[in-house]
Amino acid sequence: MKKVGLKILPRPEVLDAEGRAVQKKLCDLGIETSSVEMGRYIVLHIPETQDVLMTAKNAAESLLCNSLIENYELVVLEEERGS
Amino acid sequence: MKIGVLRFPGSNCDEDVAWAVRELGWEYEYLFWHKTFEAKAFTGFILPGGFSYGDYLRSGALAARTQSLRSLSLAKEQGQPILGICNGFQILCESGFLPGALIPNKTGRFIDRMVELKNRSDLRFKIPIAHQEGRFFIPPELQASWNDEWVWLRYIENPNGSEENIAGLKKDGVWGLMPHPERAMAKWMGSDDGVVLLRSVFEG
User: Fold this and answer.
1) Which site from A11, B44, B61, B169 is most exposed, i.e. has the minimal number of CB atoms within 10 Å?
2) Gap between the Cα atoms of B116 and B131, Å rounded
3) Best of A23, A42, A65, A68 to mutate (most B CBs within 10 Å, chain B)
4) Is residue B138 scored above 80 in pLDDT?
């Protein structure tokens, strides 16, 4: 079994209203940042009987990421023991 | 005149839409998300508002990938009018029936109030909005091919940061808008401008 991490963040062209709201709140708490990006992190557990990267890419492109407004990054994570 | 009213898990404006359809003197039938249907049995279709699939992943993303959309695709090819209201509009964008995307409001807040809209002939309509992800976005790669004729309705005062003040689109017989015409059917509701909007979609 392989674990694949999918990091999804808004495209730079999209004003990240959520990120901005969170940044302002952090600032209220005394934590200064120049910007904050809010996105989604999805972990897919894929059996090695499949082409793991292809499956993950397929999942990202057919459902998990809307390429009009988001970009995604795939990262193969450490292997799990067992199946 | 028979309207198919789509129902997804989490749709909550389906009954209001059905009521509005009856107010206009038309018939309706509920259509469930997981089944295909005989499109020819209907004059047109409405995808109502709500929180289909809890807005999980992205608003409208999961609903856009259900069996009923396959039947809607056939309906579109047959030239039958399809209207998406609020979450319905989000579903139509997610499924590619309409261009662009609806993203979180610029203010980061859920907005729930009456707004004024105008159409291409500068006719005004008072219709309520109630949404968190109502900001219309045209991605850079669509800018070049963007056709302004697709814009059906614009906000007079942009409440959510929508590009070009877009409140609603109309393209190839598919219509979508973020405001709720079914909540503007009578003076006691604050406005009856929803009547003429709904008639313009289905009565041409």
Assistant:
1) A11
2) 15
3) A68
4) yes
